[in-house]
Amino acid sequence: MRNFIFDRGAAERGTLDLKHRGAALIVDLARVFALESGCSDTNTLSRLQFAGDHSSLARVSAEELAAAFELINLLRLRHQHQQIGIGEQPNNMVNIIQLSSLERRELKEALMAVSQTQRGVELMFQTELFA
Predict the structure, then answer these.
(1) Where are the domains of the chain?
(2) Residues 6+ apart with CB under 8 A from 128
(3) Model pTM?
(4) Residue 31 CB partners (closer than 8 Å, separation 6+)
(5) Which secondary structure element, helix H or strand E, spans residue 79, and what is its range?
(6) Can you list the pairs that 23-27 forms with residues at least 24 positions away whose Cβ atoms lie under 8 Å?
C-alpha cells in the first residue's frame, strides 16, 4: 500500500481513480508525443507506438506506457464488470486492497512509468514555466 497516492474524499479508504489517476494521464502523454512527432492518429496505443519511433520518447518508454495503459484499463473494466454483476453503478474507483499482490505490484510499476515520463516531459518542455 506504500507509495500509492489515494484520492482524497474517496468514499472508501484505499481507493484509486484509475481513469483520472492513470489512463487519462497516459492519454495526455500520448497526445503530447503525437504532437511532437506529427502523428495524426487518435488512438492512444497507436500514438505511443508512433512516438516510440518518431519523437523524443524512447521506444522502451512508449512500450511501458502502452503496457501501463492496457493494465489500467483491464483493471478498470474488470472492476466495472464486477460492479454491474452485483447491481452497483459502475465507477473507476478501484480498491487497491482487493487487487492481488501481483496486480498491486504491476499497477505500482505502471504508475511509476507514467510518473517518470511526466517528469521527463516537464524537463523537456519546461512546463513549470506555464504554471
Answers:
(1) 16-130
(2) 122
(3) 0.88
(4) 47
(5) helix 59-85
(6) 23/69, 23/72, 23/73, 23/76, 25/114, 25/118, 26/65, 26/68, 26/69, 26/72, 26/114, 27/69
Closest CA relative to residue 19, chosen from 91, 92, 71: 92
| Range 67-81 average pLDDT | 98
| H or E element that contains 123 | helix 101-125
Mean predicted lDDT score pLDDT of the chain = 91
Q: Are 22 and 77 in contact (CB under 8 A)?
A: no
Among 7, 37, 5, smallest CA distance to 114 is for 5
**HSE of 88, CA atoms in CB hemisphere, 13 A:** 10
